[in-house]
């Protein structure tokens, strides 16, 4: 075996060892060339072997001057300090020169010789294939009023997607995960994560570290067959086609496509209506209404904190998440009246809701500390708390909502 890596155990060195290894390689080369020549048709092979054979034999027996090569190597080595490196280079030079000599005489295309070189050690099975990254300059930056850049989600725990994956796998939720980021890592839509995990479907923000999620190989719905289900009925219910269901190999369906209650089916490109109960978002008691002299917002919102965008607004997450370190200041996005402040009894943890007096309200959730109380007047960019991970949260971030006349809107449509 020709070694080509450094840091190996001590090995024999010197011209004698190099010559011995060179003869071994030449012998291997001789045998393969002879075998290749014998496959040539008619007398051509025999004639060529009669010309090339003596040369190969001479090379194998050391017809080339061993002393001359040793002298050359000695003179080169005198100017180099790294003798192990010189020996390896010399060995490769011997092989190269001998191969060129044989080719030039025989004009035969040499068969490929399998030199056993070290190969990279494969990475161990990572299971969920997670790679931890730190927030960086990935995605489009957005300027915040205080000149800090807010970056699109770098997905702190990116799951490397398996292309052409046909099996259903599981994923264990880690710190700082959210449904949107997990879906991005597997190349899926976030709704697909919900529709494969019923416990999340009505409360997608209620992830917790250690929770095990089912991950489908394609976008769609994971359906458990009920009595009376047919392929046609499922295709209509989930707004897809019969062919997509029956042709999906993992389903293992064959005509006449009889379904058995309890059977699990992937419905490729299937869709469901997402209904998120209002009580998940308004569990606290609202403290009255804003008095007449309460400040009114301008309708032009400012970024409520610094950090990176770890989750966008989508059908199962009606707000945005901005992640940063615990204790990062949180600011009021506009003038207004503190409608509620305190600890959420469901999943938001410590939160503040501000009524801006113009039809808009903003929500600030998962706070570590709250610096205002219900009934306070606040001004735009006033510090109202600090970032935390209270409530149902996998890591420190601010969950920020913009609510207009009771309807949650995409905050990115209102921020500069």
Structural overview:
The chain has 416 residues and is of the alpha+beta class. It has 9 helices and 18 strands. Strands 9, 10, 11, 12, 13, 14, 15, 16, 17 and 18 form a 10-stranded antiparallel β-sheet that branches. It has a two-stranded antiparallel sheet with strand order 1-4. A two-stranded antiparallel ribbon has the order 2-3. α1 (15-38) runs antiparallel to α2 (42-61) and α1 (15-38) packs parallel to α4. It is flat. The model is unreliable at 1-13, 63-70, 103-149, 151-163 and 279-283 (pLDDT under 50).
Write the layout of secondary structure elements.
Elements lengths: L14 H24 L3 H20 L4 H13 L4 H24 L23 E3 L8 E3 L5 E3 L5 E3 L9 E4 L6 H8 L3 H7 L1 H4 L10 E4 L4 E5 L6 H7 L4 H6 L16 E5 L39 E4 L8 E4 L5 E3 L4 E8 L6 E6 L4 E11 L6 E2 L4 E5 L9 E8 L2 E3 L7
Antiparallel strand pairs: 1-4, 2-3, 5-6, 7-8, 9-10, 10-17, 11-16, 12-13, 12-15, 13-14, 14-16, 14-17, 17-18
Helix pairs in contact: 1-2, 1-4, 2-4, 5-6
List keywords for this structure.
3 domains, Membrane-bound Lytic Murein Transglycosylase D, Chain A, 416 residues, disordered N terminus, ten-stranded antiparallel β-sheet, single chain, alpha+beta, 27% helix
Quick structural gist:
This protein has 416 residues and is α+β, with helices and mostly antiparallel strands. It has nine helices and 18 strands.
Second CATH tier, the architecture of the largest domain: Roll
Q: Determine Rg (CA atoms, Å).
A: 35 Å
CATH topology of the largest domain: Membrane-bound Lytic Murein Transglycosylase D, Chain A
Give the count of helical stretches: 9
Question: Roughly what is the average pLDDT, rounded to an integer?
Answer: 73
Using the alpha-carbon principal axes, give the shape.
flat
Proportion of residues in β-strands = 15-25%
Uncertain residue ranges: 1-13, 63-70, 103-149, 151-163, 279-283
Extended strand count: 18
Distance between the termini: 64 Å
How many domains? The number is 3
Helix content class: 25-40%
Q: Which structural category do the helix and sheet elements fall into?
A: alpha+beta
According to CATH, what is the class of the largest domain? Alpha Beta
